[in-house]
Amino acid sequence: MQPNGKTPEEYVIVSRLFHPKTGKLLFALAGITQYGTQAAGEFVTDAGLLEDA
C-alpha cells in the first residue's frame, strides 16, 4: 500500500458453490476495492470468461 492509502495491486476472490438447502449454484464475489469487486462481477457475467476458467 502506498502512503496515500491506495494500492497498485488488486485481488479478487470468486467462489462457486451449491446452496445447501436449494442445491442451486451460488457465486460469492469479493475484491479488495470497488474495482476488484466490479471486475469479479464482470467476470462471472461473461459466459466466455467463465467457460475459459
Would you write up a description of this structure?
The protein has helices spanning 34-44, 47-52; strands spanning 12-18, 25-31. 32% of the residues lie in helices and 26% in strands. With 53 residues, it is of the alpha+beta class. A two-stranded antiparallel sheet has the order 1-2.
Query: What value does the Rg take, in angstroms?
Result: 14 Å
Q: Beta-strand level of the residues, as a percent range?
A: 25-35%
Question: Mean pLDDT, as a whole number?
Answer: 89
Count of distinct strands: 2
Gross morphology is elongated
Helix content: 25-40%
Sheet bearing the most strands, described? 2 strands, antiparallel
Given as residue ranges, the uncertain stretches (5+ residues, pLDDT < 50) are: none
Structural class: alpha+beta
Number of helix segments? 2
What's the order of the H and E elements?
EEHH
Question: Termini, distance in Å?
Answer: 29 Å
Strand order of the largest sheet: 1-2
Summary of the model, kept short:
The chain has 53 residues and is of the alpha+beta class.
